[in-house]
Sequence to fold (75 residues):
Amino acid sequence: MDNWLKGLVAAACVTVIAVGGFYFWQQYRQSVAAEARAKQAQIRQGCYDAIGQNLPALKQFCVERGYITKEQAER
Fold:
């Protein structure tokens, strides 16, 4: 095999590995972001569910984090 052809094959391999790594890194980042959004939604729903119930510590946590307003926590 000619040396230039070996170099071309090596460059193609490096390119495929780099593109594959980039693709899977993006997929991983999207997965982590989706998990974080789901967790935030679950916490927010728990705070909304606490409105109208006698759960002062949870309501204080929710107000401090901005999930509900102070007026909502007083209900």
